[in-house]
Amino acid sequence: MAEIDSALVRAKALVKRFGEFEAVRGIxxxxxxxxxxxxxxxxxAGKSSTMRMIACVSPRTEGQLRVLGLDPEADGPRxxxxxxxxxxxxxxxxxxxxRQNLHVYGRYFGLSRAHVRRRAEExxxxxxxxxxxxxxxxxxxxxxxxxxxxxxxxxxxxxxLLLDEPTTGLDPQARHLLWDRLFxxxxxxxxxxxxxxxxxxAEQLCDRLVVMDGGRIAAEGSPAELIAxxxxxxxxxxxxxxxxxxxxxxxxxxxxxxTEVLPDRVLLYTMxxxxxxxxxxxxxxxPVSSLVRRSSLEDVFLRLTGRTLVD
Length: 311
Fold this sequence. Notes:
By secondary structure, this protein is an alpha/beta fold. The protein has 2 domains: 2-221, P-loop containing nucleotide triphosphate hydrolases (Rossmann fold, 3-Layer(aba) Sandwich), CATH 3.40.50; 232-294, UreE, C-terminal domain (Alpha-Beta Plaits), CATH 3.30.70.790. It is built from 11 helices and 13 strands. The protein has a 6-stranded mixed sheet, sandwiched between helices. It has a 4-stranded antiparallel sheet with strand order 11-12-10-13, covered by helices on one side. β6 (160-164), α6 and β7 (191-196) form a beta-alpha-beta unit. It starts with 6 loop residues before the first strand and ends in a 6-residue tail after the last helix. The model has no long low-confidence stretch (mean pLDDT 93).
């Protein structure tokens, strides 16, 4: 961890227990200024528990943790004043309008009314909600509420923005719009920490990430580095009628560097997908459908843990 001296967030042997249950089991991380850093893993992997410790709302059980160079246990209020936090669930005040949500939240940080009004107008434009500024929050779509939650987290011009599962439950169009807003923030110098169980989201947003499973870090690197390290260039997906995967896999033996048999398909990991698919056809294997695609972070997770992220 050579970058630890310049890290905005650094942890060593970090542990979080709830009674006898160990949610985070001795992880090391270092988040650099200006990067988008991700925690990728299934529900229950320890991502949110780690984020709550970084956000200074849940004390660590063991290990070392520094956020913005400060100790969360001794300097929690000072750290929180410099953070922006987007929780898993929107906790907007539904009795207020869109603009009022920003005004009220800004006052929590002791900002002047004039500054909050000015900042709110900037954030309404940023979140593409200016035309909804005086509408009640309940009238917003799910994607709009998520954008408002992110806008609200930026009222205090945070150095570090924590986003816990930011696009869960959103449709594809809303997700891509939210990604665009986050790309803009990163380009402006805001450091992002994102938890997600969406592989495409991690690949799109993160400069570096850790793959978590069972409270531990299974791998760390950029999305491209992880794919190169743990997978092949291409994957052939073959779908069969229910119950036919195992027999089909036997007929595919030796065609790929690695074969995974899943409940709904067989995956062949190879450097040359089209050639591998052609050889499968030559052996008389006839799937219901076939697809050649590039490797993804889901393939990395499958290699590391033996199951898919949606399990």
